[in-house]
Design goal:
Elements lengths: L5 H10 L13 H29 L6 H17 L4 H28 L11 H21 L1 H5 L3 H15 L4 H11 L5
């Protein structure tokens, strides 16, 4: 683990309510899980564009019909990959809920400090294919990393992966907390 990450790992582990993994106890599974938490981070980053589009149009954050479509597609892909539909539903629902929390936070910031609001046009039609692709990648990652996600100490491994992803993606505090929150349900 790079020298600058132990403090981040401890903070994320605390947020996930797990003990921070020691270098000796972590067999570097977090590197593999880093691909998965990277997908989660990339998916959460789309919330900024979604929020900007909703800011521009005044559309509500909640979109139950669209959310149901995303979950149904993920569950279908999960079945094909041999995953438990309830598990896929839980993980994807968590991604959606945390993404909506990011949107609400940004919208509140922009209402409070209008100068920080986006000025460039944003369109949901432009970002939806990216969300769909990342959700598919997430389901594939759940299938690929299933054994690791079932292993004892998974939450500690996810905490280490979240810390690494936070550093490599240079996430701001909002997105770092969102990543930790959205990653909690990855472990079985």
């Amino acid at each position: 683990m790079p020298r600058h990450l132990p403090a981040v790992v401890a903070t994320v582990a605390e947020a996930l309510a797990v003990p921070a993994p020691s270098a000796a106890a972590t067999p570097h599974r977090h590197v593999t899980l880093g691909a998965l938490t990277g997908i989660v981070a990339d998916r959460l980053a789309t919330a900024d564009t979604v929020a900007a589009a909703k800011w521009r149009t005044g559309t509500p954050v909640d979109d139950p019909a669209r959310e149901a479509q995303v979950i149904a597609a993920a569950v279908a892909a999960g079945r094909t990959a041999g995953l438990d539909p309830a598990r896929v539903m839980t993980v994807v629902r968590d991604q959606i809920e945390v993404g909506k929390a990011v949107q609400r936070t940004l919208l509140a910031l922009w209402r409070t400090v209008p100068a920080t609001a986006p000025t460039a046009p944003a369109d949901l039609a432009d970002v939806r294919p990216r969300i769909t692709a990342l959700t598919g990648d997430l389901v594939s990652g759940l299938a690929r990393d299933d054994a690791t996600l079932r292993a004892p100490g998974c939450l500690a491994e996810v905490a280490a992966a979240v810390a690494t992803t936070t550093a490599t993606h240079r996430l701001d505090p909002l997105h770092a907390v969102a990543l930790a929150s959205a990653s909690r349900s990855l472990c079985r």
